[in-house]
Amino acid sequence: MAAPVDLELKKAFTELQAKVMDTQQKVKLADLQIEQLTKTKKHAHLTDTEVMMLVDETRMYEGVGRMFILQPKGVIHNQLLEKQRIAEEKIKELEVWLSYREENVFSFLIFEMKDTLSNEKNGLQN
């Protein structure tokens, strides 16, 4: 009689372990995305700093596909600011998602594990 209970318990722990591994992979991916977005934001900021030091009459070109389009300094500046803003928003979204994962998912997994153990314990007592 103990064998079916052990198999069920082993199956439950295997499922929980798979959920934990999946969550850990998603967290690592989010960390990598945050790191990449931070680099993108910093690059846009440094480029914008250099662009703003140039005189207004400087000819500036925007790369579009395989060609370059002449753009005023203000347009380039606005594009770089927008790039920084979008990167910052995505970073904040990922950080909120990570904090949710840390707070809720792992506590849910612990609760589920305790629930499984208590059910198995009650099943053995009956």
UniProtKB/TrEMBL annotation:
Pfam families associated with the record: Prefoldin_2
SUPFAM superfamilies recorded: Prefoldin
Cell membrane among keywords: no
GO cellular component: cytoplasm; prefoldin complex
An example Gene Ontology molecular-function term: protein folding chaperone
Gene3D superfamilies associated with the record: 1.10.287.370
Family matches, as PANTHER family: PREFOLDIN SUBUNIT 1, PREFOLDIN SUBUNIT 1-RELATED
Family statement: Belongs to the prefoldin subunit beta family.
Subunit structure: Heterohexamer of two PFD-alpha type and four PFD-beta type subunits.
Protein name: Prefoldin subunit 1
Lineage: Eukaryota, Metazoa, Chordata, Craniata, Vertebrata
